[in-house]
Description:
2 copies of one chain form a homodimer.
Chain A: H1 8-22, H2 29-39, E1 44-47, E2 55-57, H3 64-79, E3 83-86, E4 92-96, E5 106-111, H4 124-139, E6 148-153, H5 166-171, H6 177-181, H7 197-203, E7 221-227, H8 232-235, E8 240-246, E9 248-257, H9 274-291, E10 295-297, E11 301-304, E12 314-323, H10 326-346, E13 353-362, E14 365-366, H11 369-383, E15 396-401, H12 406-410, E16 416-421, H13 437-459
Helix pairs in contact in A: 1-11, 2-4, 2-13, 4-13, 9-10, 11-13
Bound molecules: N-(aminocarbonyl)-beta-alanine (2 copies).
One N-(aminocarbonyl)-beta-alanine (URP) sits between chains B (122, 156-158, 164, 229, 403-405) and A (262-264, 309).
Amino acid sequence: GSLINGVNGQHALTFIKMKHDFASLKVNQNRLVDAIHSSSEYGSAHRYGDDATETGMARLSLNDADKQVRDWFKVNVESLGCVYSVDQMGNQFAIRPGKNSTASPVMMGSHLDTQPTGGRYDGILGVNAGLEVLKVLHEHKFESEGSIGLVNWTNEEGARFPMMAVASGVWAEAVPLNKAWNLAEVSASEDGAKKTMKEELERIGYLGKQKASYKEFPFAAHFELHIEQGPILEMEKRKIGVVEGAQAFKWFEITVRGRDTHAGTTPMNARMDSMLCAAKLIVQANKIAKEHDGLATTGILNMQPGSVNTMAHTVTFTLDIRHKSDSELSEIEKQCRAQFQYIAENDSEKGCKLEWNELVNSPAVNFHEDCIAAVRDSAIEVCEDLPQTSNDGQLWKPMISGAGHDSCYTSRRCPTSMIFTVTKDGVSHNPREYCSPEDCALGAQTLLGAVLRYDRLRAE
Amino acid sequence: GSLINGVNGQHALTFIKMKHDFASLKVNQNRLVDAIHSSSEYGSAHRYGDDATETGMARLSLNDADKQVRDWFKVNVESLGCVYSVDQMGNQFAIRPGKNSTASPVMMGSHLDTQPTGGRYDGILGVNAGLEVLKVLHEHKFESEGSIGLVNWTNEEGARFPMMAVASGVWAEAVPLNKAWNLAEVSASEDGAKKTMKEELERIGYLGKQKASYKEFPFAAHFELHIEQGPILEMEKRKIGVVEGAQAFKWFEITVRGRDTHAGTTPMNARMDSMLCAAKLIVQANKIAKEHDGLATTGILNMQPGSVNTMAHTVTFTLDIRHKSDSELSEIEKQCRAQFQYIAENDSEKGCKLEWNELVNSPAVNFHEDCIAAVRDSAIEVCEDLPQTSNDGQLWKPMISGAGHDSCYTSRRCPTSMIFTVTKDGVSHNPREYCSPEDCALGAQTLLGAVLRYDRLRAE
Ligand SMILES: NC(=O)NCCC(=O)O
Ligand SMILES: NC(=O)NCCC(=O)O
């Protein structure tokens, strides 16, 4: 019988059947939380409180701390008897063989890189929860139907190399390998040069030989536990988000070219002030996004030459736009392109020139119904013994992700879905990002149940 | 009889008298232009044409190229028999003794530092013209009444250390020595640290022992030749600007503090987006300045942490505002302060915090009537043999400087005025900045005549 469907009666049936099979497998909350914090010793930064764990993270992809946590990951999965490998993008794979070890593995995955002012949960929770699931299976000598594995994806954040999830993108053959390898970091390293991903993979010893492709390394499915990064679960007093998809987004790098002249002797109407033009564009993008109920963000802006009394000849800034609907996102982009052009030509005195460079194009994603059902059924089981806090008595909720994830790329090549946990004040990409030990464990338990349900399903 | 007055009859009289004394002293145009370009070999950058001289400059104050051109300056003035000294701010002084060498010298001065994308004339013309005047006096063994000298002021541009004319400011006791010494460069050096002026003075060997003060080293007067940096002389087909003063300006560093959160999961109305707030402030400052017929420029903007999908928690930007009138400039500042506060609190969703730091406060300056008259009389003489190109037949013009200059500080402590030359297309702080060889020589000749007139005047 099928595990997945929208009919309530069948749900209950499936659920009871599953319960009997592996209800005794429980994640160890303390061990999980200890692992989160001990892995966070590599790259911890931005202390905000006295407790040892009260810091954020600055583990930018492929920096020294990222090398250290990768080494830690390898030691951990090998100690659990997993088969370990690294591909050309530095993605780390750990496979725990099942009864039938010829079939593709059911994978758990997330990332260990962080934002420059990141927290201890974004990505880190997902990888550690996967590790905790492997530990539970290991200590129970549990025999899964097929193999079950864990992947640490490289540069998910796109914070150092400005394409989010670029390495799962290469695996999905959505991003060409050379484009990814040649991606330069957003700000120069100490020696003044902008390093590429390939250079840094080589430097830290994580440029693997294994081809980065779903064809070389196919998955039966991909499950990702992640903090919600938004306020909804907390506000509604729920515990688990059953993630059905992700909103659409695009990243652009926009260059404004004007002319560098003297701030004291160049009349306003003789100026080609690229900074003033860029400021108008940023204000306008936010206005357009708001009118369409979407989002717009400029997180990086650089200007040249950078002198108090000289106008910039060149300003480069990033624009991140998002919307739940692909067509509304297109509309936001279209209006930005038209209105930016108008502002540059007609509302910037002597005019400025614009160039657009698309960095990321991530259409809206719908996850796979089988994976969604596995997560939902697992969430129902996990939530049933908890105090009922929400208004409607349901502690899990179907959700759409505001952030992009590696799961967006895996879902192009294998059944995929995600699990969200409560995020304090909805704050993420910030050192104070927080998910309580209890919520981390509920998420990991849901992951365990979803993976084992799916493992059973694919064997049937 | 007095050299200076506004009555035409007396002018002519003075003029004729002077003519007889040193009309035979002529600057050497080729030698002057050769010196400009050979001194510009140190720090040349931004090639825009094939000719050897078709580059701009990147001789930021106290960098290696600035050390080299300082060494060049020293060798040159010493070969002319000048007494050479360096003060605590690295200002270089060269004095050519006159008949009465106990009196304070009449000084010529400008600067050899440039903008990051600067040209070959801003400052450089003034120092080289002063050097050319000294060469003419030397080769004619001319005996001036008192001493005549030349000064190369440190960090006039304020491009590397963000206080323009800071070293003449210390000389004038308008800027405390320690404040100047501790000024940090605007962007970090290659080793990642922001160097201070004192560190860099020491590093390049130009931290002199002589006290930087007008009390220690008084001037009888200060004359500065400079390119106009604006389009007026060229447009009106005139040759020499008789500079009667400079407009008021202020420099600020403004910090906007918001909160770094996720670009995909933080609703617009939950944001404290410091970049969006800063963009609104920049647009508003320009609007306010324009309404008051003033100027506003943001030449530097830095943001932290700098990641595509994370809002900046902090944006720091500079604001340079200018107006001919002190009271109008105050009004611009007042409106900026009030409206910035309103935007930060009420038009930035959850709000941002602002901090203002004043870097430079340069009130409107009126130069000294004696020096203005010396320049005007000299300009009349220089212009009289030239083809009459302007509509009203006058080739010189009284002007107000849009830029600040070291002369603004010297004028607090000694009679001061300036001479302007034609600037191609009015473009300055740009590699293509240009003043023709003929115009450079006309300016230098005017400088020579003004200095000798003033030398005679002060002896009487
Ligand atoms: N998980 C996460 O924050 N990823 C960053 C990708 C995005 O910008 O949405
Ligand atoms: N000469 C010159 O451009 N100085 C810079 C000072 C100013 O900003 O006005």
